[in-house]
Each structure stands twice: as structure tokens, then as C-alpha cells.
Amino acid sequence: GAVVSQHPSRVICKSGTSVKIECRSLDFQATTMFWYRQFPKQSLMLMATSNEGSKATYEQGVEKDKFLINHASLTLSTLTVTSAHPEDSSFYICSARDRDRVGSDTQYFGPGTRLTVL
Amino acid sequence: QKEVEQDPGPLSVPEGAIVSLNCTYSNSAFQYFMWYRQYSRKGPELLMYTYSSGNKEDGRFTAQVDKSSKYISLFIRDSQPSDSATYLCAGGAGRRALTFGSGTRLQVQP
Q1: Which residue of A11, A57, A92, A105 is the best one to mutate when testing the B interface, meaning the one whose CB has the most B CBs within 10 A?
Q2: Which of A3-17, A91-105, B8-22, B63-77 is least confident?
Q3: Which residues pair with B42 in a beta bridge?
Q4: Burial code of A10-36, b = ≥16 C-beta within 10 A, e = fewer?
Q5: A101 confidence band (pLDDT: 50, 70, 90)
Q6: N or C: which end of chain A has fewer CB within 10 A?
Q7: Cβ contact (<8 Å) for A44 and B100?
Q8: pLDDT for residue A67 is more than 90
């Protein structure tokens, strides 16, 4: 149980294009999902907290117009990197919290999406 | 000062050794702690979840929390080459996102 998927696992795009990354909780409902960014050999950097049916909460320094987050259902959140540039190249990972698991605050992570912007 | 401090390593041990991974934290509001394992180019995988001070054991893994000294540890017994990965500790409070340490790279030599 508690499986989180991400799609695509890898994407290469040209500078200036937009890229959408999907995060799905496969066997549980998640009212809250989190989006992280990770550079090589560095830890996870929280970008935003996504709550179903409401606007995402962005961390300081993260451009909300650049990284659009939509959490339209209890099992799906999307991150869209708009007008991507080479400096946006990174490993993007989502995590989800199981709504129905009483007393548990565990975050379950997806496998990550590697974005390369040429 | 980072809220969660972790030695980045790398830590290299021979197969079969007992591994000790440690973190310190500064946020007294943390109520629970987690250890994740992350293989290269993969998402973190939950290993252990602890809510109170003391020890929690699961197979070859033991998580230890000392809230009085703000110190958390993960012990791996009989380490295997397949344990080679980056280990991330994290603290959490309420419904907020976890705060992660920088991760310790572990290499178990066969």
C-alpha cells in the first residue's frame, strides 16, 4: 500500500517550453501533496504544499507563476514548469500524505521526474 | 543553523558491519521523525517512523530518538552491499511538510 507514481520519469525539452509532471497516489487518497526539487548530491528542497481543492502554498523564493501546481482531485497533483530554462533542470519529486491513515503523518514519495532543459 | 543537521559522508563500511547514521535537530516543535533511504536517481523510500524517544526496531534497522539532546540515529545491522544508498533523516510537526537533513551517503563494500 501507499504507492505514489509520477509521470513522466524523465523529460527532455527545449528552452522556453512548458512541462507538466503528474503525481498520483495509487491506493490511497491524499488531501495533501508536496513538491520537492533535488539537485545532484543534495537534499530535498520543498517547493510547495498542495492541498486538494485549494491554492498551493509556495516556499519562500519559489516563483508560483513559474511552477504552477494544481491539485484537482484526492489522487492527482500536477506541477507545470512554465517557460522552462536550463537552470530549471533538476530532479522533481512529489510526496503524498494518506488522508485516511489515522495518526500517521508519513509522507510517501514518488519515484521522481528528471527534467533536462536544453 | 539548519533545522536538521546530518553528516553528508560518504561513509564506507565492509559488508556485515554495524552502521550508525546520526542527525541532530534544533526545532523543539518536531513531534515525529523519519528515516528514508534513497537510491541514486530514485525517490526516497520510507524506512522507519518514530514518534517518541526511545528505540524502534524493524528487522536489521533500529531507529533511536533522544528528544532531550535532540539527537536521532539509525542503526543497520549486518550491512549488505544493497544497503548502499543515501539515508535521509527528517523531522515533522503537525501537518507541515517534513524537514529533511542533507543525507548521508553510505557505501557497503562487499
Answers
A1: A105
A2: A91-105
A3: none
A4: ebebeeeeebebbbbbeebebbbbbbb
A5: low
A6: N
A7: yes
A8: yes
Across residues A15-38, what is the average pLDDT?
93
CA separation for the pair A98, A104 (Å, rounded): 8
Could you tell me which chain B residue has the CA closest to the CA of A94?
B43
Residue A54 grid coordinates: 485549494
| Cell numbers placing A96 | 503524498
pLDDT for B43 beyond 90: yes
Cell of A92: 522533481
B85–chain A nearest CA distance, Å: 11
The answer to whether B87 touches B108, Cβ cutoff 8 Å, is no
Query: How many angstroms separate the CA atoms of B6 and A91, rounded?
Result: 21
Q: Which of A106, A96, A8, A92 is nearest to A52 (CA)?
A: A96
Task: Count the neighbouring beta carbons within 10 Å of the beta carbon of residue A85.
Answer: 11
Number of residues assigned to chain B? 110
